[in-house]
Structure formats: structure tokens, C-alpha cells
Write a structure and sequence with these properties.
alpha+beta; transferase; two-stranded antiparallel ribbon; 55% helix; 11% strand; globular
């Protein structure tokens, strides 16, 4: 756990400078484990959502300005910290002689369902790392909607660990379902593959990219059980209105009166890609819709 702790030390050192950029809200594992929960596991990345909804060029330009401001302020405060700015990826790699972390802004998933929430570092995190900060976090439904989609898509043990805590506490509520549906329609992966994913063998990932992050036992059996439970709960929770909404969307006829996601750039991008698929490969488009209809039946 020591190497992960060094990463968290570095993360907490620079996080107050990130928090000053009010165009961003924190999402992902750091938001969940260091702010929402009382540190059930360590988290070592800073994942940011750009809050304003603007045209793509304006958004990317403003994100870059904010990242450069973060870079400058960190380097002024901490001369021993080195930073690489990857402009095309909208990413900062931050490192010292003990650890490396990254700050990454999602280029596609811009905008929020509701106002961001200002949260302070959890008690356990404050005590263990002798640190304090507050930061804007994406609303809970969007935070966990994104986490669930990540758990279904890449099926990383970290995501399933975080999802396990959700299912054991708040549960898959209607609000969280709304956030999930937004991120489902924002995902690069087809809807049918998210609702009925091919199960990935993550034994080695658990050993090399999770073990040491938590004092709580999380075995591969726990991983598989959580994944199975998550898929089952999601599909059982979809109402007839939800299913009709997803089918209409996939056929390029979304009913925004059911869920008003029309403004979100990632949703518009997915619709655009579906439209291109229909135009360029109607057979594949129809096959996708048939598969989705079967899953939702």
C-alpha cells in the first residue's frame, strides 16, 4: 500500500489548486473514496468534468487555459513537483521523486445533470494523510452513473469495488438510474454491449492494479458476485418507459420528454454516430437494434 499512499500524498498536496478552477467538478474514484465515502480504498487519479456546455472548440480552449493555470500555480507553490501537459489529451502528468499521478478532463462528457456539490475530504482521509481540502463534485447520480458505466465497460476491479459499496448502501435508486442512463447514452460502447456485457477475466488486474489499495478484503469471488448482481439489478430496474426510451434513442427518434438529455454533447455525439452507422451500414444498424430489443424484451 505504501506506493499508493505516496500517490495519495501527492494528490492531496495539489488538489486545492485544482479546486480553485470552478469550471471543473471532480468525478470518479477519488470523489467517491476520499469525499463521499470514508476512504474504503485509496484512489490516485484526479478525474474532472468540465461544467459549462459550450461548443466543442470553446470548451477545449477553456479547459486548456484552466489546466495551464493549475500547472502554473502548482509549480510556483511546489518547485520540486514536475508537470507534463499533454494538450491534445487535456491531461496533466504530475510527479515528484516518490510518485506519479494524473489530472484528466473528460473531453466528451461535459455538463452536469444538477448543480455540483461542495464536499470536504473525509474524516479518515484527513486523519491518515494530515490534509484538508474542499472541492466541487459532480452530483451523486452522475457520479455513480459514470462509475456504473465504467464497471460495465472496462470491468476494472476498482470500479466493481466502488459499485459494491453503492449497492450495499444507497442502492440503485431512481436518481442513480437517471445518472446511469445519461452516461449509458454518453458511452462509446454500444448500449446493448453495456446492458449485456461480455465478461472479462480480471484476475491479473485484481492482483496487479487493485491489491494494496484497500485494507478490506475484496476477492475475485466478490468481484464476480458484484458484477453479476450489478448487471441483474440494472436490467430488472428498467421500466417499460426506460426501455421505450432506449429503443427510441437507438432508432434515432429520442423522446426527450422522458429524460431530458438533449443538451449534453456526449449524447448528441452518440446520436450522430448512430446516424452515420445507419447511413453507411444499415445492416449493422438494424442488427444492433434487434440485439437491443432482444435484451430489453
Amino acid at each position: 500500500m505504501s506506493s499508493y499512499k505516496e500517490q495519495v500524498n501527492l494528490l492531496l498536496k495539489i488538489l486545492p489548486e485544482v479546486a480553485k478552477q470552478k469550471c471543473f467538478a471532480l468525478h470518479g474514484g477519488t470523489a467517491i473514496n476520499l469525499f463521499i465515502r470514508d476512504m474504503p480504498r485509496l484512489s490516485v487519479d484526479i478525474d474532472l468534468t468540465y461544467i459549462p456546455i459550450e461548443d466543442r472548440e470553446t470548451s477545449l480552449a477553456n479547459i486548456l487555459v484552466a489546466l495551464k493555470t493549475i500547472q502554473t500555480s502548482i509549480q510556483k507553490l511546489f518547485p520540486d513537483i514536475r508537470i507534463n501537459l499533454k494538450e491534445r489529451l487535456l491531461k496533466l502528468q504530475i510527479y515528484n521523486n516518490k510518485a506519479l499521478i494524473k489530472i484528466e478532463v473528460n473531453q466528451i462528457n461535459r455538463g452536469l445533470l444538477n448543480d455540483p456539490v461542495e464536499l470536504q475530504l473525509s474524516d479518515k482521509t484527513q486523519q491518515e494523510f494530515d490534509a484538508f481540502c474542499t472541492i466541487s463534485v459532480v452530483p451523486l447520480e452522475q457520479l455513480y452513473g459514470g462509475k456504473i458505466c465504467a464497471a460495465l465497460d472496462r470491468q476494472h476491479p476498482r470500479d466493481l469495488f466502488d459499485t459494491k459499496y453503492l449497492l450495499e448502501n444507497e442502492g440503485f435508486t431512481d436518481n442513480i438510474k437517471k445518472g446511469f442512463l445519461l452516461l449509458l447514452l454518453s458511452s462509446k460502447r454500444p448500449i446493448n454491449e453495456m446492458l449485456n456485457p461480455n465478461l472479462i477475466d480480471q484476475r491479473q488486474t485484481l492482483i496487479h492494479q487493485f491489491n494494496g489499495m484497500s485494507l478490506e478484503e475484496f476477492t475475485y469471488q466478490d468481484f464476480e458476485k458484484t458484477r453479476q448482481t450489478l448487471i441483474k439489478i440494472i436490467n430488472q430496474s428498467l421500466t417499460s418507459y426506460d426501455k421505450q426510451f432506449l429503443l427510441a434513442f437507438s432508432k434515432l427518434n429520442p423522446d426527450w420528454s422522458v429524460y431530458d438529455f438533449e443538451k449534453f454533447p456526449a449524447v448528441r455525439w452518440k446520436l450522430q454516430n448512430l446516424s452515420k452507422l445507419k447511413e453507411n451500414n444499415k445492416e449493422k444498424f438494424n442488427k444492433f437494434n434487434s440485439s437491443l430489443s432482444e435484451i430489453l424484451s
